């Protein structure tokens, strides 16, 4: 999987360079393109949570997900989702998975920046401290939305469920925003 991501990054580096010559908002576009690099073949090694894990989970009283939005990306490319997780509980919360009826597979990813390059990696769990919150945003943590069943329309809402290590879940309605939306 690492190899396929690297190959994708090499390919996308060329795309990003071409875009930077023609597009003004490369700051928002480039991380997205990078985020998508290498995912076409990333079928193996991801942490999968099946529908049963979500169905059996209790809705959390203390953990909530809000401000969720995703990019409208044409089929069949994957997209990314961003949101705010608030943990009002006395214990740390660990996000371990996400799912959406609109996407065949959702993975937890982190984009990091090193030496002028963006790269992303899958993260098995993401900790939200007790009484704290964590913002998933472009260039940082995000939900990678793979295998879209249909292309979501700008302005529509896509439901997403979030599974935590304590067996609880939270849900959010994610607003579909134009592909070039910047972080906010
Ligand atoms: Cu990603």
TrEMBL record:
Entry keyword annotation includes Transport: no
Record's signal peptide: 1-23
Segments passing through the bilayer: none
InterPro entries reported in the protein's UniProt record: LpqE-like, Lxx211020-like, PCuAC_sf
Top-rank lineage group of the source organism: Bacteria
Keywords, in A-Z order: Signal
Keyword Hydrolase attributed: no
Protein's recorded name: Copper chaperone PCu(A)C
């Amino acid at each position: 999987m690492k190899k396929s991501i690297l190959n994708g990054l090499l390919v996308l580096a060329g795309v990003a360079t071409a875009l930077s010559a023609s597009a003004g908002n490369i700051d928002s576009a480039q991380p997205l393109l990078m985020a998508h690099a290498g995912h076409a073949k990333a079928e193996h090694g991801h942490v999968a949570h099946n529908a049963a894990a979500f169905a059996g989970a209790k809705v959390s009283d203390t953990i909530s997900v809000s401000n969720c939005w995703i990019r409208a990306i044409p089929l069949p490319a994957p997209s990314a989702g961003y949101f705010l997780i608030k943990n009002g509980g006395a214990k740390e919360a660990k996000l371990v998975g996400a799912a959406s009826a609109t996407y065949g597979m959702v993975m937890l990813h982190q984009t990091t920046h090193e030496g002028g390059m963006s790269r992303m990696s899958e993260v098995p769990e993401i900790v939200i401290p007790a009484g704290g919150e964590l913002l998933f945003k472009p260039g940082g943590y995000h939900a990678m939305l793979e295998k879209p069943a249909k292309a979501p329309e700008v302005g529509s809402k896509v439901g997403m469920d979030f599974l935590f290590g304590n067996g609880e879940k939270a849900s959010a309605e994610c607003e579909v925003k134009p592909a070039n939306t910047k972080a906010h």
